[in-house]
Amino acid sequence: MSGIKPRRRHRAGRYAVLLLGLLVIGVAYAAIAGAGGAASAATPAGPSPEDIAQGRAIFASTCSSCHGMNAQGTEAGPSLIGVGAAAVDFQMSTGRMPGKDFDAEMPRKPVTFSTPQIHQVAAYIASLGGGPAIPAPAQVSPAGADLALGQQIFITNCAQCHNFAGAGGALTQGKSAPALTHSTPTQIYEAMLTGPEAMPVFSDTTVTPAQKRDVIAYVTKVRAEPNPGGFSLGRVGPVTEGLVAFLGGIAVLVFIAIWITMKKRREA
User: Fold this and answer.
1) In the chain, where are the structural domains located?
2) How far is Cα 68 from Cα 27, in angstroms, rounded to an integer?
3) Contacts of 127 (CB under 8 A, 6+ apart)
4) Cα–Cα distance for residue pair 126/63, rounded to 1 Å
5) Domain 137-223 in CATH 2.40.160.20
């Protein structure tokens, strides 16, 4: 043992330990970087310059009259710089845009462009100032989501406008919240992410991506459920159900009263 101690305390030993540590760190970093590179190679690449150029051409011919040639906005339409690809995809995939005249409460219409064309316009707008991106299919898939939590989040934050079953409803000043019966999971996610029209923005810090998937799972589940009574009555809740029951009851009572009166006349 006495012969080993001097070797441990040799000055060269310190440098050897330092070099060994650096070597271990370098090998570990190379392994991690290689794994990250493989993962990034598996993910789809961003939009190509050709897609952005094509999106600019579509934008110039169909959108620039309201939003300006550089999407800077005009009196007829707001600026699109910084709104992100998700907002563009939502507005165009639901048929709200392009429109003849800009209207913040533009209703859903038939879609004008194909999905690749919409993504090209979205890529062009995103190239101008970033913003929320179009969610990947895995982000909007309701598979494995928590339906109970999705119901709780939806009732707390969305039902007062869209109705507890997503059937839509009236708002103040003549506005209305659209029904979610035809909205795709991607459109629901984008709406929460961008806050179109009168809807507030539910950022990922307010409603996490996992919770957004829970909401999507609840909405898609509820709208696919059959109506126990056979008639949906608009699925706007107990108000219409009570009204129909009241009017139906009154009608039955009136019919009974008429029948009794006619019967007494015949007996007389």
Assistant:
1) 49-129, 137-223, 240-267
2) 53
3) 47, 52
4) 15
5) no
